[in-house]
From TrEMBL:
<dbReference type="InterPro" id="IPR012349">
    <property type="entry name" value="Split_barrel_FMN-bd"/>
</dbReference>
<dbReference type="InterPro" id="IPR024029">
    <property type="entry name" value="Pyridox_Oxase_FMN-dep"/>
</dbReference>
<dbReference type="Pfam" id="PF01243">
    <property type="entry name" value="PNPOx_N"/>
</dbReference>
<dbReference type="InterPro" id="IPR011576">
    <property type="entry name" value="Pyridox_Oxase_N"/>
</dbReference>
<feature type="domain" description="Pyridoxamine 5'-phosphate oxidase N-terminal">
    <location>
        <begin position="36"/>
        <end position="155"/>
    </location>
</feature>
<protein>
    <submittedName>
        <fullName>Pyridoxamine 5'-phosphate oxidase family protein</fullName>
    </submittedName>
</protein>
Length: 209
């Protein structure tokens, strides 16, 4: 819980701005209200993005991924994001019905710069659009049509500091709990466990689309 009386808590925009240097020209000029050709190239090279939404129960950030260019640039002001098979929670879609504002963060493996897009989304089940974005003959459940408000690239510092594209060692990965282990702990062993882990890779491959 925050303590508004703490002398160390920032409570005003003026306090916040006084902590930082002036914004550089590059940080301002890189932001545009449309998808520039260079930004289009980044979107078409990206196999992974994080979709941020806001709903009545709070915020959500959801991973989205497929072959590079899976989020389609329809024109310089419009992106098309197919809704592939997932866990059926539809948190992002529920949120969009409440508040159409969305944010996208695109990542490209091996590249330090990321791309940020802010806009407003609607949910479409237009048959022609579903057919257009089908993979292996399987159409998405629906398509997010995102009207772009702002686009800009983010510098590589976060990626460099995190060493995101450097693979962890097998020993480091072995220390992490598996999905089955997590589910077993959270469900009092009603679901999860070794059987869940052993069946998960095949189930995922069979239900990608």
């Amino acid at each position: 819980m925050s303590n508004s009386s703490s002398p160390h808590q920032i409570t005003s925009t003026e306090q916040l701005e006084n902590m930082f240097d002036a914004v550089g020209a590059a940080s301002i000029r890189k932001e545009v209200p449309y998808i520039h050709a260079h930004y289009r190239a980044m979107i078409e090279a990206s196999p992974f993005a994080v979709l941020a939404t806001r709903g009545p129960d709070g915020l959500d950030a959801s991973p989205r991924g497929d072959a590079p260019g899976f989020i389609v640039v329809d024109d310089e002001k419009t992106l098309l994001l197919p809704e592939r098979r997932g866990n059926n929670r539809i948190d992002s879609l529920r949120n969009i019905l409440f508040d159409p504002q969305v944010g996208l963060l695109f990542l490209i493996p091996g590249i330090g710069e990321t791309l940020r897009v802010n806009g407003r989304a609607t949910i479409s089940v237009d048959p022609a659009l579903l057919d257009r974005l089908a993979v292996d003959g399987k159409a998405p459940k629906c398509v997010l049509r995102i009207s772009v408000d702002t686009v800009y690239f983010q510098c590589a510092r976060a990626i460099l500091r995190s060493r995101l594209w450097q693979c962890a060692s097998a020993g480091e990965l072995a220390q992490l709990p598996s999905p089955g282990t997590i589910l077993a702990a959270l469900s009092n062993a009603e679901i999860g466990g070794d059987k869940y882990d052993s069946e998960l890779p095949a189930r995922q491959r069979a239900t990608l689309y």
